[in-house]
Amino acid sequence: MSEQIRQLPRRLSLRLDLWSLGALLIAALVLAPVVSVVWIAFHPTENIWPHLAQSVLPRYLRTTFLLMAMVAGLTACIGTGAAWLVSMYDFPGRRWLDHALLFPLAIPAYVGAYALVDVLDYGGPVQGALRAAMGWTSARDYWFPETRSLWAAGLVLSAALYPYVYLLARAAFREQSGCTYEVARALGQGPWGLFRRVGLPMARPAIAAGVALAMMETLADYGSISYFGVQTLTAGIFSTWLDGGNAGGAAQIACVLLGLIVTLVALERVSRRNARFHRVGRSQRPIARTQLQGRQGWIAFALCLFPFACGFLLPVGVMLFHASEAPAQWLAPGLLVALKNTLLVAGLASLATVAAALLAVYGLRLSGHAAGRWLLPLTTLGYATPGAVLAVGLLIPLAALDHRLADGIEALTGSDPGLMITGTAFALGLAYLVRFFGVAQGAVESAFGRVSPSLPMAARSLGRGPGGALRAVYLPMMRGSVLTALLVVFVDCVKELPATLLLRPFNYNTLSTRVFELASLERLSEAAPAALLVMGIGLAAVAVLARTNRA
Q1: Using CA atoms, how far apart are residues 173 and 486, in angstroms rounded to an integer?
Q2: 9-23, 35-49, 125-139: lowest mean pLDDT where?
Q3: 434 and 305 share a domain?
Q4: How would you label 121-146 residue by residue, b for 16+ Cβ within 10 Å and e otherwise?
Q5: Is 288 strand, coil or helix?
Q6: What is the rounded average pLDDT of the residues 238-266?
Q7: Helices 333-367 & 426-449, crossing angle to 10 degrees?
Q8: 90 φ, ψ (degrees, to nearest 5)
Q9: For the chain, N or C: smaller number of CB within 10 Å?
Q10: Quick one: 62 and 29 in the same domain?
Q11: What is the 3-state secondary structure of 130-154?
């Protein structure tokens, strides 16, 4: 018995070390593509960096910065303004708009781009109505803004991404104390003064975080900017790799893009480092909304309805119209195959991502290593890294490994097995795991923090090991958060376009790639059913998000 007691700590330590080792391996897997991109960029087979720096890179940077500035300004104004109105005022339709303003999160930006061009282009209903009303017969008779341009890309991305700012700003406004606003009113502050001097300063960290997310998504976008012909850094990666055939040059542009992402993350954290706002007491009075009557109420309703109409009603309406033109497309074999591929790869990837997040967070919590405090935040870098960058970091080393495995198996068996990694959807699923690990990790880590430490300690005292405590205590109490993380990661996998385009096997279509390919050929009637399926899946996640953030 004494010998068994002496061996118990050793067995427990070994078990804990295995959990810790597993967590470290998962973290290394998530960070490996980013490291791979940097390695390839500094060790290219053909160094074209001087040519890139002198020719195309300045144009890519200039266009990228202009697009980011436009999206940052518009999303900050739209998201913050809408959040202020629904949080501080009562007006017709406020309760409905409170949740409806989140719906554009379900719409991929590239679908919004197709809808905008379809409505505003020369053959669309807007210019057609103008020509009919004014008697114009050709484009030479009038001036109309160019629809495939930088400003159009900025509008589409802003309409799709403002909910990031709206969601965080709305939560920040609602957490503020009503007493603060009462004191400000007593000191003579009007509506504008309350917003500028009280609400905005206290919500600034949340707004900055939302704008940073919107800018990171702007950097990651490829579908809409390629449709509009805007040459950003992401477009440069595709052009250098696919058209120029130079993976090293693509990795070098990817490193520039990665540097911008890291800078954005650092600036966002610095912007809220010194911001500290505390509650004034143990309980605080909620904000009493001001009732807007008559014209003021309808103006507030119109201001909130406009971004919802641009970001949700327009793309959904255009796709429904085109889907109704060709109902037979709902039964097209290509759509059914794309739907099956999407459900399979996104489902497996979301399960693997959430499971990896559970193991990584739990393993590092068990180990108690100080490394966990800086390693877990590093793994969220994958979510901030555009899919095109991850594709560069994954495809090149995986292709080399794939060829070596195939050569080794052929040498042993005499038969060529083909490409087992890059020739299947495995690489695509791995890219999804790396890309969206940060989403799952954040949800899982937050859920672990809400479980009282006494409960797993009681389970351990009753003889349950780490795995038993995870199954019997943590998972039942975290079921809601885990299922939400699964749904959100699944929807993100469905919507992801750049990594899917670069890493999918030959002739392997998902819903997102089907929409992109058909819409790029101006075949919107064929693309509409797939686009509606993508948006429907996204709406499910937005409904869950709206429910969990209900106030």
Answers
A1: 28
A2: 9-23
A3: no
A4: beeeeebeeebeeeeeeeeeeeeeee
A5: coil
A6: 86
A7: 50
A8: -110, 130
A9: N
A10: no
A11: HHHHHCCCCHHHCCCCCCCCHHHHH
Element (H, E) at 384: helix 381-384
> Rounded to an integer, what distance in angstroms lies between the CA atom of residue 119 and that of residue 123?
8
| CA–CA distance, 490 with 503 (Å, rounded to integer) | 18
Q: What six digits make up the tokens of 177?
A: 């104390």
Highest average pLDDT, of 20-29, 74-83, 212-221, 385-394, comes from 74-83
Alpha helices by DSSP H, listed for 43-145, are: 49-54, 57-88, 94-100, 109-120, 125-134
Q: 171 and 59, same structural domain?
A: yes
Burial environment of residue 336 by CB neighbours within 10 A (0 to 12, 13 to 18, 19 or more): exposed
Longest dimension (CA), the chain: 100
DSSP 103: G
247 contacts 47 by C-beta, under 8 angstroms? no
Q: Which residues pair with 291 in a beta bridge?
A: 90
Residue 123 lies in a domain: no
Looking at the fold, whether 245 and 339 belong to one and the same domain comes out as no
Q: Is the pLDDT of residue 287 over 70?
A: no
Extract the tokens encoding 312: 């949700």
Note down the domain range covering 239: 44-110+149-273+293-324
CB 268, CB 76: distance < 8 Å: no
Tell me if 23 sits within 8 A of 369, measured CB to CB.
no
Six token digits for residue 384 = 């901030």
* pTM for the structure as a whole: 0.85
Distance (Å, rounded) from C-alpha 528 to C-alpha 243? 28
193 and 339 together in one domain: no
Q: Please, are residues 382 and 434 in contact by the beta-carbon 8 Å criterion? A: yes
Q: Are residues 184 and 59 in the same domain?
A: yes
Orientation angle between helical segments 426-449 and 387-413, nearest 10 degrees: 120
Residue 313's domain is classified under what CATH number?
1.10.3720.10
Phi-psi region of 90 (alpha: psi -120 to 50; beta: other; left: phi over 0): beta
Do 462 and 501 meet the contact criterion of CB atoms below 8 Å apart? no
Provide the strand spans (E) within 262-343: 290-291
Q: Inter-axis angle of helices 200-220 and 150-175, to 10 degrees?
A: 140
